[in-house]
Amino acid sequence: MKTKTQLGIWMDHSVAHIMEYHKEAISSATLKAQIGEQDEPLNSLDESMIQNKEQNQLSSFFKRISEVVKDYDEVLLFGPTDSKTELFNVLKIDRHFEKIKIEIKPADKMTDNQMQAFVKDYFTSTN
Predict the structure, then answer these.
(1) How many CB atoms lie within 10 A of CB 83?
(2) What CA–CA distance (Å, rounded) separates 126 from 75?
(3) CB of 21 within 8 A of CB of 78?
(4) CA distance 61 to 54
(5) Given phi > 0 = left and psi -120 to 50 = alpha, else beta, which region is 28?
(6) CB neighbour burial string for 98-117, b if at least 16 within 10 angstroms, e if fewer
(7) What is the pTM of this model?
(8) Span of 24-28, 39-43, 54-58, 97-101 with lowest mean pLDDT
(9) What is the C-alpha to C-alpha distance for residues 82 and 88, in angstroms, rounded to an integer?
(10) DSSP string covering 67-110, please?
């Protein structure tokens, strides 16, 4: 029987802490969004251009996370903002992710140890 691959992602709109869960340990990595980084001074851009640029940057951030998610059987998205739900909505309309069990849980800001404990508790309670 193939072992399930499990991934926890604590995220907000600026960073994703990615934690691969194994029975013995959790390995982790971090992806940062480039949202809000401007090539031009703000006064030369109108409001709609800024919003479009930020939306494109957020889409790029979600795409980078999606590339990681596609290699797992179960994924837990958690964090303090709506970004986890936004990513979930992007993933659920893409047929490449239809066989992946993805769940969303609310969570506050956490330390690295708290995030890892949250992931461990979630996956030990669902198995």
Answers:
(1) 22
(2) 12
(3) no
(4) 10
(5) beta
(6) eebebeeeebeebeeeebbe
(7) 0.85
(8) 39-43
(9) 10
(10) HHHTT-SEEEEEESSTHHHHHHHHHHTSGGGTTSEEEEEE----
Interval 58-84: pLDDT, tens: 899 999 999 999 999 999 999 999 999
CA separation for the pair 76, 45 (Å, rounded): 37
Which token pair is 17? Answer: 């802490």
Distance, in Å, from the CA atom of 94 to the CA atom of 2, rounded to the nearest integer, reads 24
Pairing of strands 101-106, 74-79: parallel
Domains of the chain: residue spans and CATH: 6-126 (3.30.420.60)
Strand residue runs (E) in 3-63: 6-11, 15-21, 26-32
